[in-house]
Amino acid sequence: MHKRVKTQRRIWLIGGTGESAKLAIGLLQIQLPLVISVTTESARSLYPNSPLLQVWVGRFNLSEIEEFLTQQNIIAVLDASHPYAVEISQNAIAACQKQQIPYLRFERPRWEVGGWGDGEVGGKLIYLDSFEKLVTGDYLVGERVLFTVGYKVLPLFRDWHKRSTLFARVLPATTSIDAALAAGFTQDKLFAMRPPIPINLERELWRHWQISMVVTKASGAPGGEDVKRQLAAELGVTLLIIEPPIILYPRVTSDLGEAIAFCQQHFGSQNV
User: Fold this and answer.
1) What is the largest CA-CA distance in the chain?
2) Cα(34)–Cα(8) distance, integer angstroms
């Protein structure tokens, strides 16, 4: 009889962000086997080559996550997905609860709602909890608006081209550019570049397009929110920030050391 070889126990790191790359390096330094999931092939480049690390590219639904947890012999889940990647987080939480697998959300540090922080304030700060409120409100009327929110929500603003002047910054990928063009953004109103954007280039772009409002997500410093806050205050531009959806995570941390200790603890408990 052939003896069945059991899959090596692994940590599932839900990745695709700069924070997940730092976590991966930290976990590899203590020799923890990882499988990292990302949604695009280009995101592979975030992670180092290591025999302890596998990168899985694609999207999951709930049943696929449940199967993935079993097939990959996952003993703990560290969720460092983008703050607005709601579906993967909700499904991972549900699957982990069902299979009694420890789950930890790594949340990038965020600014408190309400203030600009240090420095001269010359712009206006607006918080909204959804893109729907932005679309149905009158915030954009007559403004020269730069969207830095990804391509997926741009179709919501197709009709706003008649009431304001809209620009968008998207990733330099065919999918992103085609979606922006289909949403009514002409080529002269598009800028394609992968973040992070140097502050001097960001400043010149806003000035060149005479931007009066920037629409962004509450993405913290890793998402360039610090640069946008600084420039909005400096140039007297309105910064409209869309807050992330509220998810009730079982456990959350913004501490890199705590996240690594969580994985080490649960990996060790499975190897006693």
Assistant:
1) 76
2) 10
